[in-house]
Amino acid sequence: MSSLKNYRVTAFVALLALACLSWKAHAATQPRLGVQLWSVKDEIKQDYEGTLTKIAELGFQGVEFAGEFGRFGQDPAGLKAFLDQHGLQCAGAHVHFDALAADKFAATTAFYQTLGCRNLIIAMDARGASAAASAQMARELSALSASLAAKGMKIGYHNHAQEMAGVVGKTPWDVLAQNTPSATILQQDVGWTTYAGKDPVAYVRKYPGRTVTTHFKAKFAAGASGTPIIGQDRTDWPALIRAVRSVGGTEWIIIEQEEYPNGMGQLESVAASLRGLRAVLAKMPAP
Q1: CA distance 152 to 119
Q2: DSSP 8-class letter at 183
Q3: What is the predicted pLDDT for the residue at 11?
Q4: How many other C-beta atoms lie within 10 A of the C-beta of residue 271?
Q5: pLDDT score at 264
Q6: By C-alpha distance, which of 135, 137, 171 is closest to 157?
Q7: Chain Cα centroid distance, residue 34
Q8: What pLDDT, on the 0 to 100 scale, is given for residue 27?
Q9: I need a surface site. Which of 28, 80, 131, 159 has the fewest CB within 10 A?
Q10: Does the domain made of 29-282 have the CATH classification 3.20.20.150?
Q11: Per-residue pLDDT tens over the stretch 225-270
């Protein structure tokens, strides 16, 4: 009887733990707004601190780095101080696998930890074009997930069109999602998902709790055309916002701008997409 009682207690505790994890993954969030600095890749090289200052003035709460650090390349503490001075947080950073190789792991993680950066996202990898190669990549992501967890950090992967090719459920993106731990961030770039002819809302809901950070990008399905500015495109932004808030586990909505229509500058285009996103948010009930 005693062993049966212990078994029941153990089973109950396990079920309770699973329930807590499930609740956490599905808990509603109120994502902050950031910008991927690749959006202003030319302007930031010309005036690094001035561009970051303008980003802060637009009202962004954070930035996601893309390998450019201005005069702070060897001074992450100085960059952190600059971000703090302007009310900006580090929403994450795009890196490549080689930056997290054994001989670079300590230096890379130390740099980003100093910045207050918890989310390291693999920006792209050629293996993402193949389901079979993505399975191999998933093993590497899983190992990195464990290594980074010990430092209070997370690994993630960012999609392009190639990861969304094929039948839903069997795409390279699905292979990555299904073969990595739940702590691995699925940073869906909704623009590239749309370009590939897939539904970004469905993918947020398909893998609840995994969209910790996401790229909001206005892009059209292959062969279609229009203005690639949030709110001037065809994306169902209200449905997407409801999904990331309710089931995505999303902490950061990150605007990424890679097209600059009608002769607009890079930061000018980012500002236009931010206005478009805010207009959508203003019409929605508070989370």
Answers
A1: 9
A2: T
A3: 38
A4: 22
A5: 97
A6: 137
A7: 10
A8: 81
A9: 28
A10: yes
A11: 899 999 999 999 999 999 999 999 999 999 999 999 999 999 999 9
12 falls in which pLDDT band (50, 70, 90)? very low
Give dist(CA 226, CA 63) in Å, integer: 27
Selection from 214, 173, 170 nearest residue 191 by Cα:
214
CA distance 4 to 82: 60
User: Can you spell out the DSSP letters for 228-269?
Assistant: -STTSSS--HHHHHHHHHHTS--SEEEE-----GGG--HHHH
pLDDT digits (tens, 9 = 90+) for 108-154: 999 999 999 999 999 999 999 999 999 999 999 999 999 999 999 99
Of 68, 50, 19, give the one whose Cα is nearest residue 267.
Answer: 50
- Is pLDDT of 5 > 60? no
Give the CA distances from residue 170 to residues 123, 163, 177, 181, in Å, rounded to whole numbers and listed in that order.
21, 10, 10, 18
Considering only CA atoms, which of 127, 123, 242 is closest in space to residue 185? 123
Sheet architecture: strand order including 154-158: 185-187, 154-158, 119-122, 89-95, 62-65, 32-36, 252-255, 213-216
The amino acid that residue 9 corresponds to is V
CB-CB contact of 29 with 286 (8 Å): no
Tokens, residue 105 = 């792991």
CB 159 within 8 A of CB 195: no
Q: What is the largest CA-CA distance in the chain?
A: 78
From the list 245, 183, 283, the residue with the least C-alpha distance to 33 is 245
For 19, list phi and psi in degrees, rounded to 5.
-65, -40
Provide the 3-class DSSP secondary structure of residue 209.
Answer: coil
Site of tokens 């003035």: 57
For residue 151, the model assigns a pLDDT of: 97
- The predicted model scores a pTM of 0.90
Contacts of range 259-265, beta carbons closer than 8 Å, 24 or more positions apart:
259/219, 259/228, 261/227, 261/228, 261/229, 262/227, 265/43
